[in-house]
Amino acid sequence: MREIKHGPAGHVRMTPAGGTQKAGAAFQSQSLRGALAKVCGVPRTRIERLASEATGVTPDTALRLSKAFGTTAALWLNLQNAFDVQIAERKIGKELKNIEPVIGHAA
């Protein structure tokens, strides 16, 4: 199971498990970031920004990472989306409590 942790820039940080252990090592190792960038065909700075949590996972990056690590793009995007929802809930949680369901109520 993957644990989603909150990064300082508001983006996803993963604790790798299972098939993404290689990904975790690549993001943590300064020397592997350049190699990962080369394999993915992106600037080294893109991988560094992901690793430092300065940017989130985009569809383009998700596709590239999925090929590099033998996962799916959905895995990377789902992790990012789950984190984004958690952040939104923190920001508007009090407002959400005041919203009444419309299903079952007369319009």
What does it look like?
By secondary structure, the chain is mainly alpha-helical. It has a single domain (3-97), classed as 434 Repressor (Amino-terminal Domain) (Orthogonal Bundle), CATH 1.10.260.40. 59% of the residues lie in helices and 7% in strands. It is built from 5 helices and 2 strands. It has a two-stranded antiparallel sheet. α2 packs across α3. The longest helix is centred in the last third of the chain and has 25 residues, at 73-97. The radius of gyration is 17 Å and the shape is elongated.
Secondary structure topology:
Layout: E1 3-6, E2 12-15, H1 21-28, H2 30-40, H3 44-51, H4 59-69, H5 73-97
Antiparallel strand pairs: 1-2
Q: Can you summarize the main beta sheet?
A: 2 strands, antiparallel
Number of helices: 5
Look at the structure and give the mean pLDDT: 80
Reading side by side through the largest sheet, how are the strands ordered? 1-2
CATH superfamily: lambda repressor-like DNA-binding domains
Distance between the termini: 42 Å
DSSP E strands, number:
2
Q: H/E series, N to C?
A: EEHHHHH
Low-confidence stretches: 14-19
What's this entry about, in short?
The protein is mainly α and 107 residues long. The protein has helices spanning 21-28, 30-40, 44-51, 59-69, 73-97, and strands at 3-6, 12-15.
Relevant terms:
107 residues; mainly alpha; 434 Repressor (Amino-terminal Domain); two-stranded antiparallel sheet; 5 helices; 2 strands
